[in-house]
Design goal:
alpha+beta
Length: 175
């Protein structure tokens, strides 16, 4: 039974992929907008220690390849009977490579980190990602950022090696 289900799901994915592959995905153009929604989390096996993450973003293309974006991330942690909240608000500038259904991008962001049990400070750094279109208006995305944490510009130069990686995955729409 298990093998039948695996084969059935595999066949459905392949057929759907071929159908999506047949669709022509237009390139981004100046004035296009995207909205993204993603999240994640982790828990121990008893669900005693849980961390949840939620993020959303809104962008507008200012050229056919370049988009400006604002992103909001919210984190909730319930660890060792202590509940904490943190978040970050970031602005980004990303260059997209219009390459069919798969749209890689590179860029930079700057923002602010805040919340319980975190050192409130500025964040900035490079980012890379990819948007894989499922149809002309819907995509899944993966994004990775390296964030340098700093209070002022003098501290930013000394903090390059003390940053953190932030990953996100989710879905988005384009209009």
């Amino acid at each position: 039974m298990y093998k039948k289900n695996v084969l059935l799901w595999t066949a459905m994915i392949l057929v759907t992929s071929v159908a999506w592959g047949a669709q022509d995905i237009p390139a981004f153009t100046k004035g296009d907008h995207t909205f993204t929604l993603g999240g994640g989390g982790n828990s121990d096996k008893k669900f005693d220690n849980t961390v949840l993450s939620f993020n959303l973003g809104l962008s507008e293309f200012i050229t056919n390849e370049t988009a400006v974006a604002v992103r909001q991330e919210l984190n909730f942690a319930d660890v060792s009977s202590d509940q904490t909240f943190s978040g970050s608000t970031r602005f980004a500038l990303d260059y997209h490579f219009n390459a069919g259904k798969c749209r890689p991008f590179v860029g930079a962001n700057i923002g602010y980190l805040y919340g319980d049990n975190v050192k409130e400070q500025f964040i900035a750094g490079p980012e890379v990602g990819v948007k894989q279109f499922l149809n002309p208006s819907t995509f899944i995305y993966v994004n990775a950022e390296y964030q340098v944490l700093f209070k002022d510009t003098d501290q930013a130069n000394n903090s390059l090696d003390d940053g953190r990686f932030v990953y996100s995955i989710g879905m988005g729409i384009r209009w």
